[in-house]
User: What shape does this take?
Amino acid sequence: MVLQVVTLFPEMLSGLLDHSMLKRAQERAGVEIRLVGLRPFGVGTHRTTDDYPFGGGPGMVLRVDVVVPAVEWAMMHHQAPATVLWTSPQGRRLDQHWCRELASLDHIIIVAGHYEGIDERAREIVGGTEVSIGDYVLTGGELPAMVLVDAITRLRPGVLGAERGAAEDSFGEIGGYLEGPQYTRPEVYRLKAVPSVLLSGHHQNIRQWREAQGLERTKQRRPDLLDGQIDA
Ligand code: SAM
Assistant: This one.
């Protein structure tokens, strides 16, 4: 899989790619994550990437004649046709189900906006889908882009390792419930003991306990996830 992020600030993101799961995904799971800076596509001697909004108003807007060539250049990097995602608070809200669909693709280009956003014509020309990571407004699309990269990448085969599957996480394929509580050493801390079933070594009892905990937690915290599945 090739995942590319088109951004005005690639240096903001490069450090994140060198750690933990994202590093492992690139080294061992055949995921190529590539940052495409907008600055080289800027216009004029100053490589300008933004300009004032037509009609007036606050802030700046990323230029269509900068963003479109950058995305088209990224498209040429990989043979497989690209799915283009435009980060935007106005987009379709990201969820785990959509992440699973995205994780099955070969080539994704994520465009990070900045300032007041991107000239509307860029998405009209290139196509693609606007994606929001929640109903709040961030300064730029760099963090949303990395949220997407992380959420998609960890669902690729081989990334999390054989010992652990994403299906057991919250919103996993089985039921879509929340995951139950987790514990580690020490067994007792400030009089609070780890549930004894987890120390029993009885795998079936542990699995059943975890499922029940996940279901209970889902009823308490996110009953909407159970709508239509059981009598919550
Ligand atoms: N003026 C825009 C509006 O009101 O819809 C907001 C622009 S925001 C300050 C700048 C950029 O941050 C956006 O173009 C987008 O790339 C990114 N962004 C901000 N909030 C986001 C969110 N919730 N989800 C995805 N991207 C977001």
Q: What stands out?
A: The longest strand covers residues 83-93. The first helix runs from residue 10 to 14.
